[in-house]
Structure formats: C-alpha cells, structure tokens
From TrEMBL:
It comes from Humibacter ginsenosidimutans. Keywords: Cell membrane, Membrane, Transmembrane, Transmembrane helix, Transport. Residues 1-24 are annotated as: Disordered. It comes from the Bacteria. Residues 39-427 form the Major facilitator superfamily (MFS) profile domain. This is Multidrug effflux MFS transporter.
Amino acid sequence: MPTGGIPTIERPARGARRSPVTLPSSVVHPGDALPTRKRVTYILILGMLTALGPFTMDTYLPSMPRLETDFHVSTAVIQLTLTATTVGFGLGQLIVGPWSDKVGRRMPLILATAVHILASLGVALAPNVELLSAFRLLQGLGAAASGVVAMAMVRDLFGGTRLVTMLSRLALVNGLAPVIAPVLGSQLLLIMPWRGIFWVIAAYSAVMLVCLVLWINETRPKEARIASGHSSVGQRFKSVLSDRVYVGIVIVSAMNFSGLFAYLSSSSFVFQKVYSFDAQQYGALFAVNSVGIIIGVQSAARLAKRFGPQWVLAVSTATMTISAALIVILGGSGVGGMWGVVVPLWFFITSCGFGFPCVQVLALNGHGAEAGTAASIQGASNFAIAGLISPLVGLLGVASAAPMGIVMLACSIVSVCALWFVVRPRTVPALAH
C-alpha cells in the first residue's frame, strides 16, 4: 500500500514468477482495505470540508439585520447577498465536479479552497453592499469544491451499504453545519462586528487548505480516469441525466434543501422581529434544532440499510409537508404563539436530516465512474434553486411565520411528487452489500 493510503495491487519484481494477485474477498472497493485510522482521517477532514460551504453562507445569518442597518438597504437586498453565495456555489460545482472527474480530486480542492480564502478576506473588507455581493459570489465559487469533491472522493473509496455509512458521516457534518453556523455567528457577534465573522471563516478555510496539502491524497488515479470510458464532459452529463432515478432524486434533494434554506434565510428576521429574539436566543433556537439534524441523519443511515433509502425518503418528505402546513396555519393565525411555529419547525428540520444521506446515496451509488459530475449536478441544483427560491420569503414579507411556511410547504409538495412520480420507490434497486 502506498503512503497515500489508497490500496493498490502489488506487482511482482522483474524476473519473478508471475501469478494472479487479488485483493481479499472482503475488499470490494478501495476504501474497504484502508486501515481504520486512515479511514477516520479521511472522513474527518472531508466532513469538515463539506461544512465549508454552509459555514460560508450561514454563519452571518444573525448579523443580517445589522447589515441592513449598516448599508441602509432593504431586507430583500441583504437576502440577495445570500443568494449571490448560493448561485456561486451552484455554478462552481458544475465546473469543479466534472473537472475533478477528468484531472483528479486533489488539485481542484486545493485551488478552490485558496480562492475561498481570498474571497473571504474581500468580504471582510467590502465597503459597500455591491462589492460585498460580488465577493460573496466569489466565496461561493471557491467553496464549491468542498462539498462536491468530498462526496466524490468518498464514492471513489466506497460503495453499497458501506457508502451509506460513510455518506451519513458526511451528511451529519453537512447537515449540522447550516444549523450550527448561525449559533457560532451569534456568539461571534458578542465579541466582534459582523466583518469579524468573515475573518474567522477565512481562518477556517486556511486550516482546511493545510489539512488538504498534508493529509489528503488523490483518490481518483489516472488509470481510473482513463478506464471510466467517459472522455468528455458531455458524455458524463449524458450518463447521469439519462438515469430517471437520478433525475428524480436531484429534484427531491433540491426541493428539500430549498425548503430548509427558506427557513435559514428568513428565520433571523422572523424570530428577531416577530418574536423579539435577540441574537443569542436565536442562536439557542438553532442549537435545539441541531439535535433534530443529528437524530435524523444517524437514524436514516440505519434505516436505509434495512428498508432502503427511498422508503426513508417517502416518510421524511411526507412529514416535512405536514410540518410546513402546520407552520402556515399556526404561524398565520397566531394560534400557539411562538410554540406553534417552533415545534413543527423542529420536525421539519429533523425530517430534512433523515433525507440528507438518502438523497446522496441514491444519487451517487449508481454513478461511481462519474461521481464528481453526479455530485456536482446535485449540489448545484440544491444551492442554485435554493438561492432563487429563498428571496420569495422576503418578497412575501416577514410580518409572520406564514410566508416562510408557504415556501417550505410548496417545496415539500414538489419533493413528494418527484419521489412518487419520477423516482418511483418500488423501481429503485436494492443496495449491494
């Protein structure tokens, strides 16, 4: 095994008698032969990388009312700075994912992370909302590689039910990050102005760059790129987009994420203006919701192995729809006050947690040869569509929680329809062991 930790088949010495050399029968994918310590290192670093995008977008959520005051602009304009990041993140993934299929995973990760550091510093120093939005777009482009290439690297190493377990570890971090980020942001606002948040993000990105350089090796060697048989970007896109199950899962994933993002982008205004939360109380609410994410992600990994990820999605999307409907009814009428919104909101977010690892497994399991492309389309759809949908809450107004709930409900209904009429759970093949 080379120092990088990726298993290979040893070649006999020159002149030695050649005989067939095979990996142990238990080793089906390269990651199966990794020692436990190396496997944990990869998952830990790659998991932290997947958090870079959500931290980039969500850590400053508690400070959005302050940006509105500092720059003397409307709520909708400040929400557009978040939209700029999500659009950048989506477009960046469409570039980086296919690129990583062609040239390997490591170099795109390193270059994109370096861009992210510079963009974060630009946001911290931006003198007006126009430049802030431009640097936020560049931040999204720089963070794009973190999520899409990290997932592709896990798919390079694992498959079948082991892939469910490994992606659930990434999904735990990736699912918790959007919830923890505002908690961190609210605490940072106690000791620094909002610009300081972006100095912290730049430092986090710099740490990730060091980890990449020192401990992450290439998981897609040149031989695998040649053997994949997909010599062009067009062929790789055609391969994944001709798969009905994959296309349906992309729709489900994008709608689930958009529903969650509608909450993330508007909740700071809803809870701080309508229910008079301060930044710390708002952060505490996110801490409580993070428990739901943990429960959802970890339970989904076990249930998906037993029943299939498509059936876990069937239950989670239905629960999201019911929860969002309750937010619309109770938030609009005022029945139950704050608790009439907080309780169904917790169930909505928990259901999102159940869905995170399931959509990733269903999207990547059948596309190992073009995992970067498959992950990029899924990720780009998530963030681009969420970025376009989330400002609708601001346009509808934040006088109550009902507009937020309406957008969440609409996304959930589309998700349910895509699952049952496009994916069709009964037609999804069982995962290999």
